[in-house]
Specification:
By secondary structure, the protein is mainly beta. It folds into two domains: 74 residues, RNA polymerase Rpb7-like, N-terminal domain (Dna Ligase, domain 1, 2-Layer Sandwich), CATH 3.30.1490.120; 86 residues, OB fold (Dihydrolipoamide Acetyltransferase, E2P) (Beta Barrel). The protein has one helix and 14 strands. Strands 1, 2, 3, 4 and 5 form a five-stranded antiparallel sheet that branches. The chain is elongated. 19% of the residues are buried.
Length: 170
């Protein structure tokens, strides 16, 4: 996905490797960025060099602004999409959190297959039929139920109440 960002460089940085400095500043501006339409900015793939030679000098400070075009790898959850993640936390009141990249997905006790029962003592869900456990560190496959964007971040929920969802055997 192609984006454009203004990157400011001080005159002192002009004697250094300009491309490297621009890339570092662009990484600084974009790292940890999340956009409601595009999702999480994961990695800058390519910076187009055409504009690196043509900067605009700011009057007074002498700083130079470069308008950079770049491609970025983004990650965004979509309702109905199937994904894999690792259980991060099991709650004694039911449900658990799953890590997928920069996101934490909540899976409620109502969205866990009826084959699993909560074991509050060991903080896990046990399946008596096939001796599997859903606990911290377990890899699972789930489906996004909702992908609400709120307070500058995605707050997705998921389900494992479907065929081929749930515990993944490594």
């Amino acid at each position: 996905m192609k984006f454009i960002k203004d990157v400011t460089v001080s005159p002192a940085d002009l004697s250094k490797d300009l491309k490297k400095i621009l890339k570092l500043k662009l990484l600084e501006y974009t790292s940890g960025t999340v956009h409601p339409e595009y999702g999480y900015f994961i990695k800058i793939i390519k910076i187009y060099d055409e504009n690196v030679r043509t900067g605009l000098i700011m009057e007074g400070s002498g700083d130079i602004i470069f308008k950079l075009e770049y491609d970025v790898l983004v990650m965004r959850p979509f309702e109905g999409e199937v994904a894999e993640g690792i259980i991060d936390n099991v709650f004694d009141v039911g449900g658990f959190l799953v890590n997928v990249g920069p996101m934490k997905i909540f899976i409620s006790k109502d969205d866990i297959s009826e084959n699993y029962a909560l074991d509050k003592n060991n903080l896990c869900y046990k399946n008596e039929r096939n001796d599997t456990e859903l606990k911290k560190g377990t890899k699972i496959r789930f489906r996004y139920k909702a992908t609400q964007f709120k307070d500058g971040d995605f707050k997705p929920t998921g389900t494992i109440r479907d065929n081929y969802l749930g515990y993944i055997d490594d």
